[in-house]
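Exercise 7.
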Amino acid sequence: ASAGSCFAVTLAAIVWRRTIPLLSLHVEATGHVGPRDDGRLGFTSIELEVSAETDSAGAATQLETAIERAESGCLVAMALGIPVNVRAAVTVACEGAPVEAAPGMSS
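Solution. The predicted structure, written as C-alpha cells, is:
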C-alpha cells in the first residue's frame, strides 16, 4: 500500500507542477510475497495498476510522461529494493478511449 500511495502522491505533485489536467486517478497495488534472496520471507515484487483520466489527447501524452517520472521518482519504491512494475491506462474524458501506454512503462 505504501508504494501505491507514494506513487499517487508523486504523480499528483508532478501533474500539479506541470499543470496537467488530472480528472481522476486510481492506483491499485498488489504485493507478491515469497522467499527473498536473503532467505527471509518478504515482498519479492509489487505491481501497480494505474488508471488516469484527463481532458485531451495532448494532456494524455503529458500524463503518460508524468506517470513514467512518478515511477522512477517514487522514494518508497526505490527504498524497497524490489521490482515495482507499473501498468498504466490513460483515458481522455471526452473520448473515453484508452491511449496506448508508451513503451517502457513497466520496470
